[in-house]
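Chapter review: from sequence to fold.
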Amino acid sequence: MTSLAELLSRVDASFVETGAGFEPWDDPHPDRMPADEEYSRVTNPAKWRIVGARADAWLNALVDASVATVDRIVDVRWTEESRATHTRIDRAAPHATGAVPLVIARGAIEGVDDAGVTIGVGDPTMVVESIPDCGCDACDSGSQDALDQLDEYLVAIVSGQYRRLEKGRQSITLMPNSRQASNMRLRSIESILAKPRGWTEVNGASWLGPK
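The token string follows.
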């Protein structure tokens, strides 16, 4: 059985190869005060391909650790229309019973293919997150922040600690270190989580347990 620490070591080792040639960059707005003109500007969309390189490292590590099978360039059914236009989609099917499949979809930014990553789970596939969320210069918080965001979601999914509930325009997302809610009152979350009647829910077992 592979531990999460062992899997992350495999991801880091694979990223040395998949990330070769991609230059990391610091947060250009540590004070979070971008200039107005940066909101409509994407200076270097190709730099965001480093996120896809990290996603490739994850897919490689999942196969190398014998916890999943990865199918490249596939079609999937989405529960809702993704915000991105996908240029290619990869799907990882976990071996563990009760674990949910992972989808890594690549999108274009300013005409540059594979510059964005959309994470999805389940079948049909529910959108988890798109990284970067925007890609403009104003929203840029550095490459490490984007890579950490990708890792956070994939760790939650692979470890079986990701839970997503949707009902119309309302949604609740639970991960090990965060809780997000959209279009709803926070005080109602606990009762919904206890009895999510009428909600569409995606969650699954850990990929790292027994096959």
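Two observations follow directly from the output. The chain has a mean pLDDT of 92. Residues 23 and 47 are 7 Å apart (CA to CA).
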